[in-house]
Amino acid sequence: MKNFRKATSSDANVIAQLLMFSMEDITYDFIGLKDGDKAKQFLSELISQENNQYSYENAWIYEIDGKIAGTCIVYDGSLLYELRKPVLNLLLTKFNRKINPQDETEPGEIYIDNVAIFPEFRGKGIGTEIFQFIIEEYADKKNQTIGLLVDLNKPRAQKLYESLGFKVIGEKQLMSENHYHMQLKK
C-alpha cells in the first residue's frame, strides 16, 4: 500500500539519510567538509527542528507498505529568508561557516527544495508519483505556482519535469552548481 503523509520530527534521521542522496555535494559545500556523518547530522538537526527550510514541517513522506521510500521538502518561496536564517545560524555555530547562498526560489511560488528516494525504490515511477502528488496538492487544489531547480547537467531530470508541465523560466546558481529554474503554473 502506498501512502503520503506529513513528516514528524521522529523522521529526521531517515529524511537526512534520503537528502544526502540528492544534495550531498551542496551539504558538503554548506559545512565546508566532505564528511558524510557530519553532513547527515547537520541535516538531521535541522529537520528535527521547526521553522527552517529543511524542517519536518516542510517535508512529506512517501511510504510503501509502511516503509519510507522517499521524501520531498516543499515550502513557500516568499519565506526563504526567514526559513534560511536557522540554517545559516547552525552553520556558524557548529562549523564556523558563514556562507551567503544565492536565492534558489522567489516569492509567488511553492518551492520544491528536494525530492529523494532510497536506491532500492528507484526506477519504479516513485519520483513521478511524488511530483504528481505535489502538483495535485499545491497547483491543482490551491492554484499555486510550483518552482524547482534542476542541475544543468541532468537533462533526464529536466525532461521528467517538462513532461509534468514545468517550463524553464531562467537560470540560477546555488552554491557551486548551475541550475535551470523551472515553474509549473495552472
Automatic annotation (TrEMBL):
Please name the source species.
Answer: Faecalibacter macacae
Task: Report the domain of life of the source organism.
Answer: Bacteria
Question: Which ranges carry the N-acetyltransferase domain?
Answer: 2-186
Recorded hits in CDD domains, A to Z, give: NAT_SF (cd04301)
Cite the GO molecular-function annotations of the record: acyltransferase activity, transferring groups other than amino-acyl groups
Q: What is the lineage of its organism?
A: Bacteria, Pseudomonadati, Bacteroidota, Flavobacteriia, Flavobacteriales
Which InterPro entries does the UniProt record give? Acyl_CoA_acyltransferase, GNAT_dom, N-acetyltransferase_domain
Q: Which PROSITE patterns match?
A: GNAT (PS51186)
UniProt name for this protein: GNAT family N-acetyltransferase
List the SUPFAM superfamilies hit by this protein, alphabetically. Acyl-CoA N-acyltransferases (Nat) (SSF55729)
